[in-house]
Task: structure prediction
Amino acid sequence: MLFRRPINCITSALLFAAALCLLAPARVAQQQEPKAKDQKGQKEQNENPLRIETELVQIDIVVSNQKGVLVGDLKREDFELLEDGRPQSITHFAVGTSKRPATWLTAERKSPATEPAGKAVTTEVPGGRYLILAVDDIHLVPENLILAKRALLRFIDQQMASGDQVAVVTTSGALGFFQQFTGERPVLERAIQRLTVQNRAVPRSLDVPRISDYQAELIDLGDHDALELAVQEILSQEGQPTVDTSGGAQGRGGGRSGQQNQGGFSPGERAAAQAQAKARMIVAENAHFTTATLSTLEEVIRSLRPLPGRKVLVLLSDGFFLGGSRNSKHYDLRRLTDAATRAGVVIYSIDARGLVATPPGGDASEPSGVNNALLPGIRARIEQGVVEAKRDGLNALARDTGGFPVFNNNDLNLGLQRVLDDNETYYVLAFEPATSYRDGRFHKLEVRVKGQPGLRVRTRAGYFAPAEKLAEKSVEKKEKSPEKAAQQAKAARDAQFRAGLGSLFPLRGIPLDLAADFMNISEASNVALVTAHIDTAGLNFERTNDLYRTTLDLVGLVFDEKGKVAGSFTDHVDLSLKPDLFERVVKNGVSYRKLVALKPGLYQVRMAVRQEGTGQLGSASQWVEVSDLSKKQLTLSSLMLSPGGEDLNLSLPAAQQTEEKVAAYQPRPSEASRRFKRGTNLDFFLFVYNAKVDAKGATDLVIQSQVFSGSKLIYATPLSRIAPTGAPDVQRVPYAARLSLASFDPGNYELRALVIDRAAKTTAHRRINFTVE
Result:
């Protein structure tokens, strides 16, 4: 473990010198004011965190007028909130927008010394939107999945904004480790390209009777006509006489009558039993896949509960069957409503089939019998009911969680834009139920706008109250052996690390920033430089004598594109600090660096840090693409960012810098955090590999720096030369420059570096997101 302190590099022209600068002990990054600590204050800090449970219900709502336009100027007193029809007192009110998220409440306290017991506090939500693109690969047919992939790729390229955190998840879980929030467009594009249809079952098109999924659901619900349709097909295939549904005989012995066989059953009765057995099998199969789909969505939504703020989940699906009763047959949708209420997730559902028109004779994707001529009215009714039956679940999911469904729209991107537009303005309301429910029952919520009947409110349908815990029986506890206690402690620690490393989003028990940068430090030696910054302000230190002590465990895993572990690292860090160094560490945090050798490919680095004693844990993840330099193509390392220091003589804008000043730039170590103060400078650094060299050993490289806000280019430099003639290693050419942030408004941006090899007439580029505060 190394603390950060100022360093100076002798030269930036030498690759290895620059690499050593990146790997040297780094300076402490100033983030927050130090906390004065005495023995009394330290005693308070060492106490276990106090967690206060309150029956707090918090919901976010959208209000629109009769034309569908969002209304964003309402006040707390304009709203009336009811639970099971009884008015409730609104204890918290906030307005949020896509650019300025609303504050939410939390009922947890880290220390009794910091806040009054039992008082909830507001939590500032990180900037940017959290979007979950859920693809129902279990129910999507291949042709609709292709359309969905095209729409999602267009969404990532054109509709996703800088600062957005997007996760692509599947109902089958087939994407594996790709299912995490990220703002990296290339990673999201790769995840979308990997989407495939998950085969549900063996096709039933040649079975007799050819019962469709919806027909099976109707038979299971006791629909006589749906059963008769299957019976007639069986009898027709067997050469038996058939009858129509009115009971009029078309031939002797048809329908449910006729001669009995040796078992005492007529052909019609036997056919009915066969059809019912087939229907039960299909219904069971539908129930399995519906449950798998909705259980996955519920699991994803519940996992987002620790992440504050409003989260948007968009489900793209062909629809699914709920089994007649949406609250009891296959899956109780109120469980998803409860999960969404507790996690602050609103669901929007998009029917990937677009405008559905069932052709005469039925949908080609649904099996149909040969007896349409016999029972045309029944067949037509069933075929017309399929569309709405499959949409019932999509409609309920959206309506009950505050969103809306998008049906009969062949432009999926238009539907996605409607979702984004619907989240431009929203409100957050919270209340503590007047009655302390511990009944485990579902309680309905309703929000109204007083005195304005023309306004429409969308919010959660309700939530499940916690069930009263059974009184624990007092039993005599046996004292655990030291070995048993150590084993249990290790198992609990390992489980906590697995949860942190597998989370969809960073856990902030210990705030952790992470960067992973590709670079090549020697021939055939590609590495990822992993840089982490640990915020120590919230850690508990034990004071013994004149030293402040604590212990941190760090675990890092590197996954390749197939989800296999390609590298790992662990460290056990004992901090023992004197008072002056302790205050610096609490103020500035500590940094950690690791080099991981990797083959060419796309990787995800995940890291978790845990404090012994308290069990506080933080986690983070970053993607890094390691290029294949053996192809001898123009290639760039990762863009490495750091705050500009006053000791560098590069105060001019990049457009006015001379080659001599750029060449004299001394690179600073890459920072894990990509957040910079407005008015300061941002330094960036990269290597250029495989440039073409002329007979004199010179290169002809130029670079342009570009800054984007969303999809809009807001800043660009003229082309400038890289590496004057005579650079020691023309195959690993370093470049560094400074960008002034004086004119940048607070927000999220993307920096792009475009390098042109004019001798080889080739280009290469890299891009990275950063935030101005």
Remarks:
- The mean pLDDT is 79.
- The CA atoms of residues 351 and 407 lie 5 Å apart.
- The first strand starts at residue 57 and ends at 64.
- Residues 267-303 form the longest helix (37 residues).
